[in-house]
Amino acid sequence: SQTIHQWPATLVQPVGSPLSLECTVEGTSNPNLYWYRQAAGRGLQLLFYSVGIGQISSEVPQNLSASRPQDRQFILSSKKLLLSDSGFYLCAWNFGRSSGNTIYFGEGSWLTVV
Amino acid sequence: KQEVTQIPAALSVPEGENLVLNCSFTDSAIYNLQWFRQDPGKGLTSLLLIQSSQREQTSGRLNASLDKSSGRSTLYIAASQPGDSATYLCAVLTGANNLFFGTGTRLTVIP
Questions:
Q1: What is the mean pLDDT of each run of 10 residues along chain A (114 residues)?
Q2: CB of A26 closer than 8 Å to CB of A76
């Protein structure tokens, strides 16, 4: 069966510090991969999605970036964190439309920028 | 741009009641609609997925309907239990393979 892991689960970082959140999927190949952010009291916002290695689409302009160095690995990064980057970050995966599209989420990473 | 709205934002019901959660979306050109459950501080768990060609899906005590032309979906929960307490989110998938989420309905089932 497929599983998705993301880490770290909780992170407290000072303003201006770098960020790296990592997500891996096991038990499948060539998944679509996503990074979402859920700010307090707000809905989920799609940040990045990837349909293959090295293919990254960005949905919102920001100081965050994403990379997909391997088929089942998706990394969210920042060179300098802002206070507004605080939130709950969720990695997710699914297959293409022909396979039904149910999307599966990781357990999330809480980021607090202080 | 697709906008997804969920009403009510919060709902409290006594145990055993049947309840309906609502989801509306502005652009009917969707590929599918999913309902998720999120427990506090946790990730999302997919409950039901309705393809754009379908009108409803059922899983146990849950039934989700989709009226694509009017941009609405409902999640019906029968015989609610305290363990159903969570935030329920709906999301629509567009042709660009993007999921647009509502802000959720926070459900509390009172024993």
A1: 91 96 93 88 83 87 90 96 93 73 88 95
A2: no
Which residues make Cβ contacts (< 8 Å) with residue A84, sequence separation at least 6? A113
Residue B94, classified by CB atoms within 10 Å of its CB into exposed (0-12), middle (13-18) or buried (19+), is middle
Closest Cβ–Cβ partner in B49, B97, B104 for A100: B49
Residue B13 reports pLDDT greater than 70:
yes
**What is the identity of the amino acid at B103?**
T
Q: Mutating which of A25, A50, A95, A101 best tests the B interface, going by the most B Cβ atoms within 10 A?
A: A101
Closest CA to A12 of A73, A86, A75, A77: A86
**A106·B43 Cβ contact <8 A:** yes
